Amino acid sequence: MExxxxxxxxxxxxxxxxxxxxxxxDGAPEAGxxxxxPRPMELxxxxxxxxxxxxxxxxxxxxxxxxxxxxxxxxxxxADSDPKVFTxxxxxxxxxxxNLKPEAVERAxxxxxxxxxxxxxxxxxxxxxxxxxxxVEA
Length: 138
Description:
It holds the Pfam family OsmC. By secondary structure, the chain is of the alpha+beta class. It has three helices and six strands; from the N terminus they run E-E-E-H-E-E-H-H-E.
């Protein structure tokens, strides 16, 4: 896996992933940015959310569950001083589908958190991570 980051101007940077996709990052105005794009730490949080959502949907599908939607909301707290790592992250899942078994949803989230989601497992080295979930009948 690779990624190249190029400074554009001010505090705006462009990341090009190894698969050729582009992501823009920008800083806050007080840091010289123009607030035109997400901050790098926001992208880390989004990456963890995407990683676990991908896992949960895949695990539920493989378990023959009729999943039709998965939303993960993340709330994070960071350390007050540098390095301002994440210290707490709360993952809140809303999984929708037909006749989803609660134990299957709980198992999928547990497997993602403990075995498959590299991003959240890595962030768990500095942050206390909690998981909450609800099922919405579709």
